[in-house]
Amino acid sequence: MSSTAEHAEGHAHGHGLGEAVTHSSAKLGMWLFLGTEILLFGGLFAAYALFRAKYPDLFYDSHKKLDVTLGAINTIVLIFSSFTMALAVSASQKRNRKWLIILLSITFICGAAFAVNKYFEYSAKFHHHIYPETNIFFALYFMMTGLHMLHVFVGMGLIFALIIMAKQGRFKEGNRYTPVEVGGLYWHLVDLIWIYLFPLLYLIG
């Protein structure tokens, strides 16, 4: 009887240790991936700085054609979504399924709102015959914001998957909230990149 109890206790301990290792490995893997993403955008930021120094007048005149109001709204939307994502991670750690689903849903809606605003902004540019080939500023603008938008869509896909998993009760015990935390790290990167893009493209004259 004692042997059986000891075996069960040892199995539970091993299971808990395994989940801890999986949690740490998943976070490390995500951090490494985020590092490559930062290098990618870092190269684009460097290109922007180089061409801006070479064509200051062109960049100044071109940046005035951007919609600062829409850019500011999107900044507020993403900052708020980062806050709700952080709360979602906390809710998952506390096994609060109801609030986890609510907060993830709000974050997803914020991402969708960002995408809709971006659609209107791009549409206005195309209506005024402004395209990536217009000049080097808009080539960088469309490349940087388009790449960022792709990351927003990927993040929304991850969040949608997390909502489904939460509804299925996948985050009830152990370190099974790991997907939420890893997804949160990715979403925070999406927010952080935009916080740099907004002043760089819209505000710096």
Mean pLDDT: 89
What are the secondary-structure elements, in order, as H or E? HHHHHH
Overall geometric form: elongated
Label the CATH architecture: Up-down Bundle
**Uncertain ranges:** 2-15
How many individual β-strands?
0
Decide which structural class fits the backbone.
Answer: mainly alpha
How would a textbook summarize the main sheet? none
Q: Briefly note the CATH topology name.
A: Four Helix Bundle (Hemerythrin (Met), subunit A)
Q: Please, what is the oligomeric state?
A: single chain
Distance from first to last alpha carbon: 77 Å
Percent of sequence in beta strands = under 5%
How many domain units?
Answer: 1
Written description of the protein model:
This protein is mostly helical and 205 residues long. The chain has a single domain, classed as Four Helix Bundle (Hemerythrin (Met), subunit A), CATH 1.20.120.80. 86% of the residues lie in helices and 0% in strands. The longest helix is centred in the first third of the chain and has 53 residues. It is elongated, with a radius of gyration of 22 Å. The N terminus is likely disordered.
Q: What characteristics describe this protein?
A:
Four Helix Bundle (Hemerythrin (Met), subunit A), disordered N terminus, 0% strand, mainly alpha, 6 helices, 205 residues, single chain
Task: Summarize, please.
The chain has helices spanning 2-54, 56-63, 68-93, 97-127, 136-167, 178-203.
